[in-house]
């Protein structure tokens, strides 16, 4: 049962009784009826507010009190909306002086004196009259609640001291005390670490952690996951918060992106798992599946299928059945902690101590409270945090112990009374902020700034002084962090998350006021709902938004994105029909949707404070945006098509935050933006051509903080730049100064740009500075001014007239320096380090030079041994500096990473870099590493990663190579001649890439690294065979082999047993390859076999008898293969068979058979000589995807039918198979999600589904694609009536088709593509076409090359 707290009530009532109602009274002083109503409100509300604290406690046992609080909550929101109407009208009148002048008209003379106040206008008088019925209705409700207050026995309680006036707490970071040890779980942690480090040959190893909510399952998993020994033992780690929404696609995608952030967004589970399996091949992997609820063994089997014996999985769950399903090698059941351990956690959070030795006065009551936490770590932590932050004396501790809330029953959702109590003792302003966060789904990760902007928009931040909302929000946020309501994400320290039970608590206290639309659940929001959110989908259709039908008083419309770069589509019904009904919105986000325009009726949203259009395709903003006078936050980040801001933006007088980063088509700022003096964040200020003076508008924006980019500075002169008063804006910490990249413009003058830069002296607290496309010949002296003591990052890019660099070495706090595209720089010497410096670049950790085409000399000035230079440098990168001569600086004792690229005259000496771990040299004169005579015993750290190519001279002695390369695990080269000199040094090398090595003909045992596990050979045109038959199979450890574009390759090896450990074999584009292994045997441990574009390959192997672990066979354009190896039916682990363009392949699967146990994907594409598909395929219950293409007109499916568990079925140019499917009954495929039918030679089909035979489609379908039905005339509406999950419909090459199913059958449809259907195209013309009304609600509609919805942006 939800219970209502002070969450919204106290906060809103404070506003009603404060400035809001007082301002309204002043505004309506000339209208007696309205004035009297407001006075009555002000008289009644304090008495109600006084009993709120009592009502909050009493509602737990008294349903009448709970109902009273619900009614009061509704009334409070409605009253706030009315007062906001008054505030808006008052502000509108103030901004529209022309309306104020109407007070001198004849109408004014006809009105009595009482109606002619200073705010009087005819329109305001009518407005106030219109408000009277609303106000009288609300006054009646208020009187009724006041009367009920007494009958319910509610009385005033002394308020707790608020904590909002306390000094802002410092941000808490994880400490060794709180996170470095796991109280009471040491044995479990130790045993888990031991088990994770043991090797297993029996497949995936699983450990489960089982326990009720709040028991510390996730904490234990985190401590194991982050243990230093785990880092050393595994190649990859991934953490997935699963929760109760088990989505195998989402989980697999998260794992893949954790391992390979560059992986493309794919929603096909099979493709994702194939990609994941390839990435993990031969790698040790630790995976944590946190908070797993799904008990399905089939789902678990599918999810874990990409993982092998080198994978360890930790599962945390509340359910014993889940633990049994995952079949762990050991299950760790977390019982409640002992009183002693629970007391220890309680002390840590309440007193920041391990016990009560220093706080004896709290010992007895503290022990009693700890016992009431009932052994639950989360409860001890929450109550401890509460006492530390709010209760400072013994009486307050005793009140906590004696509270009635301890005696309330635990809810079905598992809310612990201790957590309720912790919430109950929050100050009212924090209750409001915390309850609001219930709109975020479990495991949702959020940023602090994101939450603060939302809180501000909802009115939760009580500003006690001007321009403090960001600081106040930070204080509120960190208060909730310190009380353990928010915790730092384990995946990203810049983000936060709520524990599941804390999230449950937030939902409980928010009740119906905050609602979130859960995925795959049909919901209807209550009429009481004020704040809503939902996870954004690829296609958000009209069906989804039925949930909002009753929520007409909504204040928050917040879609939540999971991926910034994925395209999302929104039905136009939201913009045209739904939003105009939501006139009370404070927060509106359309972030990420592919919308191109907004309706010009935004004045309806007059209450709006927060508007997020980031990552949309908006081309222009309607003028009505500038009537949103209350607007505080406008986010237009990466609106790449937005061409300009509205001309009247100066009307947005309450705007605090404007973000236009990435909106690169905006050419200038609108006139009057300097009047927006409340602005605290302005991401970019663009100066247009001829508008140089506009930079002076920055002068009045004295409250700017954070990041600021000034662009278009080529249009500014020195005097205008000085007017910006940039040095006075002390809150700016990241500054970009950008001129145009066009240096040929005749209006650009070196001297003018130097004066502009001189005039843009930044504030003293600046931390990051980027100067780009500066056209002056010298930099300003302020760049190295000692006043910039906080500057940690400096970038100088494309300053093409500068011939020398300023003495940057003086900047004592600088950690990162990047210099690029300074074409006039020829020498870098002492001027960079600065004169009279005892330590130059004292803090610099990263130094980068790029694209300095005329740089010839780097004088590191190392003669003066009294001066320390670059003592902290860890990374040095020099790229595309073709004229640079000589050597690099020596004595870089901290250097760990060195990158040299295309510096063909440079001698790279690494002799004095003892800490070097990563070396990448691709193009230099000479590579040197020799022991210095002055320090022969100098310690040398072995390299871990090496990339070497295009090195004219390799000068590293054998002894030194052993020191440098002994522990290298990754080696890449384009020069095979380097390998014989180094291969014996690579005793630990596990991964090697050889690219375009002309000298490589074959490997022998003498030049093959003995520990190599992964080898890629690409573009080695003289390679004839890979492995010499003399090589010993006993020492051969290769697991992954990729061979691409080797024009002369004839075979891989004479013997397959040399490669017995090989698991992945990938061969691409080898036109002379005739055989893989001359003895026609495959490696016995092979799991994946991929062969592409090998036109003369004749044989893979004779049989699969010894290759029993094979999981995937993929052949594409292997035209000379005539048969598959024998024994394919015995491959019990085989999951995929894909055969593409194997024109000579003759395979009768009824003779050779198919494995029926684990086969998931079976594809036959353009293999004309395959006699028939196997009869046994109907027995493949694991088969999920089937594709058959171009198998000839006489090929039919077996009489036994189709595999009933298919999720994807694709049939191309196979009319008999299609006929068999229709006759058998496609509706019997009850799991089918994707259906692709190409109807060549199906001339008798007039409708789809076929109406004449009553053809039915399975309701599970989400995607249908039909093509090449020459006589198809219409889509049968009846056949679509049960397709409530259909998202995608694609129709191609159906020239006679004229109609679609009726609109009510397409409400779930998100994407409609129509190509080469001329009659249907005409019927679907925008607005005028007869079929347009059926499709206008669809989120994405494309016909041929025209994007109808959303409209294409040029």
Automatic annotation (TrEMBL):
The keyword Cell cycle does not apply. Residues 439-506 form the Disease resistance protein winged helix domain. InterPro entries: Apaf_helical, LRR_dom_sf, LRR_R13L1-DRL21, NB-ARC, P-loop_NTPase, Rx_N, WH-like_DNA-bd_sf, WHD_DRP. It comes from the Eukaryota. Residues 695-821 form the R13L1/DRL21-like LRR repeat region domain. Residues 156-181 are annotated as: Disordered. Keywords: ATP-binding, Leucine-rich repeat, Nucleotide-binding, Plant defense, Repeat. Residues 191-353 form the NB-ARC domain. GO terms for biological process: defense response; response to other organism. One of its GO terms (molecular function) is ATP binding. Residues 9-97 form the Disease resistance N-terminal domain. This is LRR and NB-ARC domains-containing disease resistance protein, putative isoform 1.
């Amino acid at each position: 049962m939800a219970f209502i707290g002070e969450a919204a009530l106290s906060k809103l009532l404070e506003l009603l009784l404060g400035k809001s109602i007082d301002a309204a009274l002043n505004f309506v002083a000339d209208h007696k009826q309205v004035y009297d109503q407001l006075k009555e409100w002000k008289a009644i509300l304090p008495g109600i507010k006084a009993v709120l604290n009592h009502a909050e406690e009493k509602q737990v046992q008294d349903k009448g009190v709970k109902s009273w609080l619900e009614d009061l909550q509704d009334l409070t929101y409605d009253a706030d909306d009315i007062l906001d109407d008054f505030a808006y009208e008052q502000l509108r009148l103030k901004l529209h002086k022309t309306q104020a002048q109407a007070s001198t008209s004849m109408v004014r003379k006809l009105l009595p004196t009482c109606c002619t106040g200073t705010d009087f206008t005819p329109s305001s008088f009518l407005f106030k009259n219109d408000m009277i019925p609303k106000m009288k209705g609300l006054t009646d409700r208020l009187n009724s609640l006041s009367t009920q207050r007494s009958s319910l026995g509610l009385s005033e309680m002394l308020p707790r001291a608020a904590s909002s006036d306390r000094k802002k707490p410092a941000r808490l970071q994880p400490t060794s005390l709180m996170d470095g040890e796991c109280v009471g779980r040491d044995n479990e942690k130790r045993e888990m670490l031991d088990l994770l480090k043991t090797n297993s040959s029996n497949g995936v190893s699983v450990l489960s952690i089982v326990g009720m909510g709040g028991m510390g399952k996730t904490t234990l998993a985190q401590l194991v996951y982050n243990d230093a020994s785990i880092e050393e033992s595994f190649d990859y780690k991934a953490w997935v918060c699963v929760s109760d929404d088990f989505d195998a696609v989402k989980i697999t995608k998260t794992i893949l992106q954790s391992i390979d952030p560059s992986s493309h967004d794919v929603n096909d589970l099979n493709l994702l798992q194939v990609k994941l399996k390839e990435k993990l091949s031969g790698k040790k992997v630790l995976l944590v599946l946190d908070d797993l609820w799904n008990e399905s063994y089939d789902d678990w089997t599918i999810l874990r299928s990409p993982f092998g014996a080198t994978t360890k999985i930790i599962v945390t769950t509340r359910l014993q059945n889940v633990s049994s399903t995952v079949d762990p090698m050991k299950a760790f059941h977390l019982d409640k902690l002992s009183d002693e351990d629970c007391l220890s956690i309680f002390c840590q959070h309440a007193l920041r101590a391990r016990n009560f030795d220093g706080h004896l006065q709290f010992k007895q009551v503290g022990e009693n409270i700890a016992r009431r936490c009932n052994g639950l770590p989360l409860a001890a932590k929450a109550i401890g945090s509460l006492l530390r932050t709010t209760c400072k004396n013994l009486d307050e501790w005793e009140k906590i112990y004696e509270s009635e809330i301890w005696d309330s029953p635990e809810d079905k959702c598992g809310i612990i009374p201790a957590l309720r109590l912790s919430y109950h003792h929050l100050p009212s302003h924090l209750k409001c902020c915390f309850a609001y966060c219930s709109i975020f789904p479990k495991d949702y990760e959020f940023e602090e700034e994101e939450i603060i902007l939302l809180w501000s928009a909802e009115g939760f931040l009580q500003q006690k002084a001007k321009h403090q909302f960001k600081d106040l929000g930070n204080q509120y946020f960190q208060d909730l962090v310190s009380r353990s309501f928010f915790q730092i994400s384990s995946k990203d320290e810049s983000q936060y998350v709520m524990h599941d039970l804390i999230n449950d608590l937030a939902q409980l206290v928010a009740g119906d006021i905050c609602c979130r639309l859960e995925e795959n659940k049909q919901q209807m929001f209550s009429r009481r709902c004020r704040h809503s959110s939902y996870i954004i989908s690829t296609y958000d259709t009209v069906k989804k938004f039925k949930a909002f039908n009753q929520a007409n008083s909504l204040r928050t419309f917040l879609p939540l994105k999971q991926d910034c770069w994925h395209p999302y589509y929104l039905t136009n019904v939201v913009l045209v029909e739904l939003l105009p009904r939501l006139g009370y919105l404070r927060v509106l986000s359309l972030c990420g949707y592919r919308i191109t325009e907004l309706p010009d009726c935004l004045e309806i949203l007059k209450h709006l404070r927060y508007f997020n259009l980031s990552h949309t395709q908006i081309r222009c903003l309607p003028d009505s945006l500038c009537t949103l006078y209350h607007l505080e936050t406008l986010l237009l980040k990466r609106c790449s098509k937005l061409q300009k801001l509205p001309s009247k933006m100066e009307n947005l007088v309450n705007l605090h935050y404007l973000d236009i980063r990435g909106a690169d088509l905006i050419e200038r700022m609108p006139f009057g933006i300097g009047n927006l003096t409340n602005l605290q964040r302005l991401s970019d200020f663009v100066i247009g051509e001829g508008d140089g003076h506009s930079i002076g508008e920055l002068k009045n924006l004295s409250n700017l903080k954070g990041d600021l980019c000034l662009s278009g500075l080529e249009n500014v002169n020195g005097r205008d730049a000085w007017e910006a008063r940039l040095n006075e804006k002390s809150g700016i910490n990241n500054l970009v100064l950008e001129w145009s990249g066009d240096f040929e413009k005749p209006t650009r003058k070196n001297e003018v740009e130097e004066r502009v830069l001189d005039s843009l002296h930044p504030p003293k607290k600046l931390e990051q500075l980027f100067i780009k496309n500066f056209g002056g010949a010298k930099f300003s002296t302020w760049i190295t001014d000692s006043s910039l003591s906080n500057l940690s990052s400096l970038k100088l890019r494309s300053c093409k007239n500068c011939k020398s660099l300023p003495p940057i070495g003086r900047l004592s706090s600088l950690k990162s320096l990047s210099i690029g595209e300074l074409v006039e720089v020829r020498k870098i010497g002492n001027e960079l380090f600065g004169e009279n410096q005892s330590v130059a670049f004292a803090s610099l950790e990263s130094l980068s030079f790029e694209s300095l085409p005329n740089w010839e000399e780097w004088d590191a000035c190392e003669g003066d041994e009294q001066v320390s230079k670059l003592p902290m440098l860890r990374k040095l990168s020099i790229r595309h500096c073709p004229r640079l001569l000589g050597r690099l600086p020596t004595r870089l004792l901290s250097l760990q990473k060195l990158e040299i690229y295309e510096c063909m005259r440079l001698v790279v000496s690494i002799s004095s870099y003892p800490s070097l771990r990563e070396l990448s040299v691709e193009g230099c004169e000479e590579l040197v590493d020799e022991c210095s005579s002055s320090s022969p015993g100098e310690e040398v750290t072995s390299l871990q990663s090496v990339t070497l190519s295009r090195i004219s001279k390799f000068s590293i002695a054998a002894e030194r190579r052993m020191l440098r390369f002994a522990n290298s695990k990754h080696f890449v080269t384009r020069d095979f001649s380097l390998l014989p000199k180094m291969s014996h040094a690579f005793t630990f090398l596990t991964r090697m890439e050889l690219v375009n090595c002309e000298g490589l003909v074959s490997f022998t045992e003498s030049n093959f690294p003995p520990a190599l596990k992964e080898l890629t050979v690409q573009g080695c045109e003289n390679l004839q065979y890979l492995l010499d038959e003399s090589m010993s199979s006993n020492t051969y450890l290769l697991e992954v082999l990729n061979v691409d574009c080797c024009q002369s390759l004839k075979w891989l090896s004479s013997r397959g047993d040399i490669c017995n450990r090989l698991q992945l074999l990938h061969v691409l584009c080898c036109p002379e390859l005739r055989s893989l292994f001359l003895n026609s045997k495959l490696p016995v441990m092979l799991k994946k076999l991929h062969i592409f574009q090998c036109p003369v390959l004749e044989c893979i192997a004779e049989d699969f008898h010894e290759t029993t672990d094979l999981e995937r066979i993929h052949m594409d354009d292997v035209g000379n293969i005539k048969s598959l190896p024998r024994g394919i039916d015995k491959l019990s682990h085989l999951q995929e068979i894909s055969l593409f363009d194997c024109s000579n392949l003759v395979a009768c699967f009824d003779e050779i058979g198919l494995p029926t146990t684990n086969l998931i994907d079976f594809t036959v594409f353009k293999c004309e000589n395959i006699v028939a598909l196997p009869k046994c395929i109907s027995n493949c219950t694991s088969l999920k995807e089937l594709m058959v293409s171009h198998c000839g007109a006489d090929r039919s499916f077996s009489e036994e039918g189709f595999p009933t568990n298919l999720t994807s079925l694709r049939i191309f140019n196979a009319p008999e198979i299609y006929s068999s499917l229709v006759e058998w009954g496609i509706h019997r495929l009850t799991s089918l999600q994707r259906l692709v039918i190409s109807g060549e030679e199906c001339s008798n089909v007039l409708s789809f589904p076929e109406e004449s035979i009553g053809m039915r489609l399975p309701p599970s379908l989400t995607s249908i694609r039909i093509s090449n039905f020459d006589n198809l005339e219409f889509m049968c509406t009846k056949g679509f009536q049960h397709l409530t999950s259909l998202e995608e419909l694609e129709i191609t090459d159906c020239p006679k088709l004229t109609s679609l199913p009726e609109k009510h059958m397409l409400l779930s449809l998100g994407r409609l593509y129509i190509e080469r259907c001329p009659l249907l195209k005409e019927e679907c013309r925008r607005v005028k076409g007869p079929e347009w009304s059926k499709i206008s609600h669809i989120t994405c509609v494309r016909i041929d090359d025209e994007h109808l919805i959303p409209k294409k942006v040029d």
